[in-house]
C-alpha cells in the first residue's frame, strides 16, 4: 500500500499553537483566532475570545456544533462553506470567507461576524481542520443595511419608494386574489404644492411632504403599507379593505392633512389633499390597472373640488366616450394622412352694406363613407389627445393655398391655444408666408380671448411677429373672458369678434343689448373693428349696425359651406369693403 502524502495530513492543533502575544493583538483589534478540529468538533480559541463574545458561555464556544446553534440566518453556513470548496481537496490549504450573525439569546441583539480562514484535508480528502479568524463587523453590516434601505425607501419620507411600492402592490393583489379578500389602493395627492414651491421654496415643500407622510403613517393599521408614489403623491395599500372601509379611511387621511397646519422653518402652512382609490381585485386585477384607475379617480376628485375623495367604479358612459375618442383619434390620423381634412367657409359681411368682407375657415373632416364631421366633433378630441397641432398645421396649409390661388380673397383661421406658443407652428406659418408673398396681407389669424389673457406678454410677442409679416389679428369669442380693454389695446389686435352667446338674444334681452353695445363702443374708441357672431335675424343686424358694429356673421348671412364661393361670385362689388378692412 503506497505511503500517504504527508502534505494531506492535518497538522496537529495544540492549544499553544495560538500564541499569547498575537492573541492579545487580535483582541485589541476586535478579532479572535480559533482552531477547529472537525473530527472531534472541538474549537480552541485565543484566550481573549470571551471578550469578543461576552454574552456567550465558554462551553458554547468550545464546539463547532454548539457555536452553530447561535448563528443566523443559516446555522449551517460554516459547514456549507467548507463543503462547497471540497473540490479543491488535495491542496495544502483551502481558503474560505463567510459572514453571519450570532445571537446569545432570542432577545439579544445580533452581533455580525466576518470569518475567514483555511481548511486542511484529512486522509479522505475532506476537511479535517480549520484555522480561522473572526472579527466583529457590525458597522459594515449597518452600512449595508442602510444602503439596502435607501434602495427601497424614499430618502425624504423614509417610506417605500415607487419601485418597491409597486412591487408590494403586486404581492398584495396576488394575496388578495388567492384568499378572495379585497384590498384598496389609494393615491393621496397634495393640492397646490407648486404654490408652496413658488412662494416659500422647495425646501419648505419638502418639509410639508415629510410631515404629511408622518401623519398618514400614524393613521395606518398594522399590515398596511405606505410609499411615496411621486413628488406630491403618496400610495397606500390597505389590505382586507372593503369599499365602505375605504371611504371611512379616506376621510380619516383627508382630516389628518387638512385639520392641522404644518409647521415649517418659514412659518405655518395650510395644506389639503385629494384622494383617488380603487378596490382590487374587484375593479382591477393587475398593478397597471390598479394604478391607472387610482390615478383616474384622483383626477376626478381634483376636478370636482380639491380636498375631496373619489372611488373608481365602472362607468358605461365614460367607457363609451373613450371608445369614441379612440375611434375619432384613429380617424383623424387617417384623414390627415389621406388628405381628408378640408375647409368650410363662413361669410363675414359689412354690417351696413352686407357686402362680403372675408370668410372664416372652419375645419371639416370627410369620413371614409363620405359623411362630414364638423369642428365640434373633431377639435375637442384632437386637443385632448395632442393631435391639434397636426390639424392646425394642415388647416394653415389649406388656407395659404386658397389665398395663393385666389388673390381677391381674404380668409381667417382659428388656431388652438397651444399653438400660440408652439415654435413649430410659428416656423410653419413664417415659411409659408415667405414662400407666398402677398398672402399674409389677406390672412386674419383668430385667437381666443382666454388665450389672450393667460400670458399677455407671450401673446403680445406672437401678435407682433404676425403683424410684421402683414397678417391681421382677431380676438375670437370676445366677452366670454372679460379681457380688460387695457390688455386689448396693448396687444395691438385689429379685430374683436363678439361672442355669439351675447349676440343671439340682443333683440329680446336688455342685458345682452347693454353688454354688446358697450363692447362695440369701447372697441370703436380704441380703433378696433368689431364682428358680431351668431346674428340670427334682421332686427339684431339692424341694432348692431345702429351701434356701430363693423361686420356680422351667422345664420342670417349664411352658414359655412365647403364650396369656394369666390370661384363664381363677382368680386368687384366687394372692393370697397376689402379696402376698408385693409386700413
Secondary-structure blueprint:
Elements: H1 20-28, E1 31-37, E2 42-45, H2 49-52, H3 58-61, H4 64-68, E3 71-72, H5 77-84, E4 94-102, E5 111-121, E6 127-136, H6 138-152, H7 162-179, E7 183-190, H8 193-200, H9 202-218, E8 225-230, E9 233-238, H10 243-258, E10 273-280, H11 287-304, E11 309-311, H12 316-337, E12 341-350, E13 356-366, E14 372-373, H13 375-384, H14 388-405, E15 411-414, H15 423-435, E16 443-448, H16 449-454, H17 456-469, E17 472-478, H18 485-491, E18 495-498, H19 500-503, H20 510-525, E19 529-532, H21 538-547, E20 551-552, H22 575-582
Characterization of the model:
This protein has 583 residues and is α/β, with parallel strands linked by helices. The protein folds into three domains: 6-143, PAS domain (Beta-Lactamase); 154-314, 2-Layer Sandwich (Alpha-Beta Plaits), CATH 3.30.70; 338-582, TIM Barrel, CATH 3.20.20.450. It has 22 helices and 20 strands. The chain has an eight-stranded mixed beta barrel, surrounded by six helices. A six-stranded antiparallel sheet has the order 2-1-6-5-4-3, with helices on both faces. Strands 8-9-7-10-11 form a five-stranded mixed sheet, with helices on both faces. Helix 8 packs across helix 9, helix 12 (316-337) crosses helix 13 and helix 14 (388-405) runs parallel beside helix 15. Residues 1-16 have low confidence and may be disordered.
